[in-house]
Every structure is written in C-alpha cells, then in structure tokens.
Design brief:
The protein has helices at 17-20, 38-51, 76-91, 103-111, 113-126, 139-146, 180-193, 220-233, and strands at residues 3-10, 26-30, 54-58, 98-99, 131-135, 151-156, 195-197, 203-205, 210-213, 237-238. By secondary structure, it is an alpha/beta fold. The chain has a 7-stranded parallel β-barrel with strand order 1-2-3-4-5-6-9, surrounded by 6 helices. It has a two-stranded antiparallel ribbon with strand order 7-8. Helix 6 (139-146) links the parallel strand 5 and strand 6. Helix 3 runs parallel beside helix 5 and helix 7 (180-193) packs across helix 8 (220-233). The longest helix has 16 residues, at 76-91. The chain is globular, with a radius of gyration of 17 Å.
C-alpha cells in the first residue's frame, strides 16, 4: 500500500492549529525565532500529543519582521548555533522526531550545499535519530544523508515545479496552484507515480516521503480535509514518516 506523511508548519500564529492538527501526521513547530514563543511551543506540543501527531522543530532565521522569509548571511558557526538553539528550545517540551527548516533558511539550504551541510551537522549534533525534512532532490537531502541522518524528501501540494525538480519561484505568477482539484491531483500523482508535471509541460521524477500543507492560507483547513479524504479514498496510508520503518 502506498504511504505518505502529511506535515504542516504550526505554532506560527495563523489561528488554524487546532483545526489542522487532527488532519496531519507530522507537525513542524516554530521555535521562537521567526515566530512563536514558550507559550505557543508548549500549547502546540500539547495539541500534537493529544492527536498523536509526530512533533518536529521548525527552526528559521531570527527575523520576525519578515517572518523568516528573508535570507540572512550567517557564518557557519552562527548558523549552526541558530539551528541547535531552536531545536533545543522545543525539545524542552517533548521528545522530537524530526526537524524541518523554515522559509528562507529552507530555500537557501535546498540549493546551497555549504548551508545544507551546516544544518545537517547541527541536527546530528543534537540527536542523530532526528529525521531531517528537505525539498525532494535538494542539497539539504544530500547533506542529511551524508551526515548519517534519516531524510524525508518533501513535496508541495500547492506549488508548481521546474524541469530540474525545484519549486517555481514565488515571484512568478504561476508559482502557486490555486485550484484545489489540481493540487490534489498533483499530490496523488507524486505519491503513486513518483512524477510531477513541470510548468513547461515535461514530467519530472520526484520522490515523495512527506507532503507540506501550508497552515496560513484562508482555505488551509478545507484543503487539508479534502486532501486527507482523497488520499484515504485512493488507498494511500497516512503515517508520520518518523514512524515508518
């Protein structure tokens, strides 16, 4: 039976956490840098535990003004400390299962091998058993494996792809998929066939271990419900990647 993990970035103040948590299998919880604080971390962890959702750290650049979506040039030692500190901050509230970088840090690590290596080494320094989430086929995935970590290759329901397997830049008008049916169909194909249609019309091979559901959209909850229902109807098992053999 095909299997997929549904993950969502939570604890960021979007207001949908309680509704989204029962619909997902892995939660990436903001660790107080780009968003969140001690109270939101504790509350989100408690919510995840209530619904049996795997808990992961979601470290980002310490730039609340831009919600961690602006790239920052940090020396390797500073970047290593940034990631370690945030993972440790969340680990005070519960045992962690995975780590997924946030926003600009995630995108930078996807294409920059040096940044990816620092992040992977930081995760390993905290706990080698933590799963590292990274964009499918990216530098972060390669760095995680090189560091001896278990890696989950992540795909996106509501983003379009380029012929090299990268996400279409958000600056382009065709970066986002706004039609729910199209987004669901893209996920089903990635999970069942290991392929995605690029914007120029070619098929691209892709590995889908976990699907990202954005938790900050107006229709986030409705889409999450629909995607979960259609995956289940298609005979695809929903299970946290960190719980899979």
């Amino acid at each position: 039976m095909p299997r997929i993990d549904l993950n969502c970035d939570l604890g960021e103040g979007a207001g949908h956490d309680a509704e989204l948590m029962p619909l997902i299998t892995s939660a990436n919880i903001a660790c107080g840098a780009h968003a969140g604080d001690e109270a939101t971390m504790r509350a989100t962890v408690t919510l995840a535990q209530k619904h049996g959702v795997a808990i992961g750290a979601h470290p980002g650049f310490a730039d609340r003004e831009n919600f961690g979506r602006k790239e920052m040039g940090l020396a390797p030692a500073a970047l290593h400390a940034l990631v370690v500190t945030q993972i440790a901050a969340l680990a005070r509230f519960a045992p962690l299962r995975h780590v997924k970088p946030h926003g600009a840090l995630y995108n930078l690590a996807a294409r920059d091998a040096a940044v990816a290596r620092v992040i992977a080494e930081a995760v390993r320094a905290v706990d080698v058993s933590l799963v590292l989430f990274g964009l499918a086929g990216s530098e972060l995935v390669r760095a995680g494996r090189a560091a001896g970590l278990r890696v989950a290759e992540e795909v996106f329901a509501d983003r379009t792809y380029q012929r090299d397997g990268s996400l279409t830049p958000r600056s382009r008008l065709d970066a986002l998929i706004t039609d729910e049916a199209v987004a669901v169909a893209q996920v089903l194909r990635m999970v069942r066939e290991g392929a995605v249609r690029a914007t120029e019309g070619t098929d691209v091979a892709i590995k889908a271990d976990t699907v990202c559901l954005h938790g900050d959209g107006l229709h986030a909850v409705a889409f999450a419900r629909r995607l979960k229902a259609e995956l289940t109807q298609a005979g695809i098992e929903l299970k946290a990647f960190s719980s899979q053999p």
